Structure formats: C-alpha cells, structure tokens
Amino acid sequence: GHAHLTDFNLAIRLAPNTYATSFSGTRPYMAPEILLCSLGYLTGYDHRVDWYSLGVCFYEMLMGRRPFEYAVHSSSQQVLCLMSKSLIALPSQWPSDLISFISCMLRYEVGSRIASFTAFSQHRYMERINMNDVFARKTAPVFIPRSGTLNCDPTYELEMGIFDTSSTGRQRCRLLNSREEIEQKVNEFTQAFVSYNREYQCQMNAEVTNRVIQAARDFLN
C-alpha cells in the first residue's frame, strides 16, 4: 500500500550541466519546456519537467481531468499558447494552501515552479505530512492492493491502439479487440511478473559486501 513513483518507460539519467532535448512523453502531461524545445525556442530541458508532470497527475487525481483540455490535432504552438495564457481552473472551496500547492506545481515559468524535493516538502500544504514517516513507511496506507494479482490496467494494448497506425498494428488490434483476449494477455504477464523487494535486495547486497570484506580480512591475516 506504500506508493512509489516510477517512470521506467522514458527515464533518463542526465549528467551534471547537461540537458535533454527529445520530444518524448504524453503531451497532456508535458511541461512547457519540452514543447518550447521541440519548436526551437529552448536548447534543452532538465529534471524540472518531471515536477510539472507530477503536478498534472495531482490535478487529475483531484479534479478528474487534466488542467488543459485541447484537441488531439492541436499544434504544439497552440498548446503552448493555451498553457501560457489560460488560468488553471481551481475550485474556490479548496483550502488556500492546496490551491497554492497545485498552482506552484503547474507554473509555466520554471523558476517559480516547485521543482525539488526540498521545495515540495517545505510548502505549507505539505507541512501536515511527516515525510520521514512516509519514507520509513510508518504512515497507514489508505489502500492496500492484493498481492496475488497484477494491479494495473492493460494500458499497453490501449497505447498500441492509439499510437501504432501501421497495417500490422491495426491487424493486431483487431485480433485483440475482445476483453477476454486482453485479460488473457494480462494474466499471462502476471504469471511471468517478478516482483522486486527493495528491502530484501538491500539486505542481500549488504550480506554479500560483508562476506567479501570478511574474506579479504581472512586472506590478509
């Protein structure tokens, strides 16, 4: 029940003083810098785009929709214009600190956006949360998923249907258009899925390290 944020699909590790330049991701969740870079207005972008995307996720969880709605065929220039000139709809009945928190996550200007864990955890809306307890997993989860099944939707098939426009892709979509077939594919993936236990892995790594150190000491003695 303790959530972990991951992005294995398009993750990249940037070296110090370097920037990413690719036009990658799902556009409704993209930060303005990615669009600006794709249009040639910026030479690159950094980790701060991820904080914007996280803000979009927060907004969507609270509102049931994304902060900016536009047609699929809208150009990047049109999307940028919408993002820079439109006010984000935030309910007046929300607490002022929550409004401030979401607004700071979704700032168009990178310099005024929440873009680090320090800024994130020190915002007044987050003061009610003990982040040390969160990291230590001392907080009670509000939802505990079943451990015996894969807790996800068959989004791979959905993404394939949206983005794969080749004749092969269309043919495969027709073959997998029934719910039963999709569920079968998910069940097959579930059976092959190997869970990762971070605590167990860290413990095993520590034991291996200790054995190596002890072996080195025995050899030297």
UniProtKB/TrEMBL annotation:
Family matches, as Pfam families: Pkinase
Family annotation (PROSITE patterns): PROTEIN_KINASE_DOM
Entry GO MF terms: ATP binding; G protein-coupled receptor binding; G protein-coupled receptor kinase activity
Database matches in Gene3D superfamilies: Transferase(Phosphotransferase) domain 1
SMART domains membership: S_TKc (SM00220)
Name of the molecule in the record: Protein kinase domain-containing protein
InterPro entries from the UniProt entry: Kinase-like_dom_sf, Prot_kinase_dom
UniProtKB keywords: ATP-binding, Kinase, Nucleotide-binding, Serine/threonine-protein kinase, Transferase
PANTHER family: G PROTEIN-COUPLED RECEPTOR KINASE/RIBOSOMAL PROTEIN S6 KINASE, SERINE_THREONINE-PROTEIN KINASE 32B ISOFORM X1
Residue ranges the record marks as coiled coil: none
GO biological process, one term: regulation of signal transduction
Superkingdom to which the source organism belongs: Eukaryota
Domain named Protein kinase: residues: 1-126
